[in-house]
């Protein structure tokens, strides 16, 4: 009996370690996506720098309200302060990343919601309309963004930003990396459910992943603390998990995506020149 318990513990630890690996692999893919989008504007930065900027951004997201907000500003300032990239270019590339990311996200939202609730999938309509307007009015969108951030670029720099939309390599790598990130997100949930001894179908996990994304964006508390956990436990219970197992999965997931990511980002801020960027961020 003791041998059997030990085997279960080893299997659970193995699944958990793999889940952690999928998370950091996702961060690396975010860095790779950003690198190719930046390269599309003529800026080529080491992927190591971009990986650190993403980790630091995750830390800021986790300690500021409306997560996914403050971290983006830190990323902009990171490459502008430490690498001399014009703020307007860094801002546009991050926005463009989000546009590329929206393609696989909408596919996931469609799969997740259509599997359970067809009417909720109508939320895709305004999102798709907004992205289409940005795409069709790309030059005007760039002008508005530069004005918003009060950045003056040369005609050559503006031309590089405008041409980003037609950069095949940046678009291909960006969409592929974004798609792989969401595959890894579902894979992480799968590994965590296996770690607690559950077999959950992929469509169900896609739905849970979509809910996790929506909660993270909509939550107004720092890092979505309280809201994300409660929402995920409720969602997992809704799809058939017992409350105890749902709590176990959420605790493991949040330990990776909140605790470990925060510690990693803080370490980067303290050791890789992030203090200057952090001071600049707080002054804004």
UniProtKB/TrEMBL annotation:
InterPro entries in alphabetical order: L-PG_synthase/AglD
UniProt KW keywords: Cell membrane, Membrane, Transmembrane, Transmembrane helix
Membrane topology of this protein: Multi-pass membrane protein
Chief place where the protein resides: membrane
Residues making up the signal peptide according to the UniProt record: none
This protein's record includes keyword Transmembrane: yes
Keyword Electron transport: no
A Gene Ontology cellular-component term: plasma membrane
Transmembrane residue ranges: 12-32, 122-138, 159-182, 202-220, 232-252, 258-278
Compartments where located: Cell membrane
Coiled-coil annotated residue ranges, if any: none
NCBIfam families: flippase-like domain (TIGR00374)
Family recorded in the similarity comment: Belongs to the UPF0104 family.
PANTHER family: UPF0104 MEMBRANE PROTEIN MJ1595
Protein name: Membrane protein
Species: Thermococcus eurythermalis
Lineage: Archaea, Methanobacteriati, Methanobacteriota, Thermococci, Thermococcales
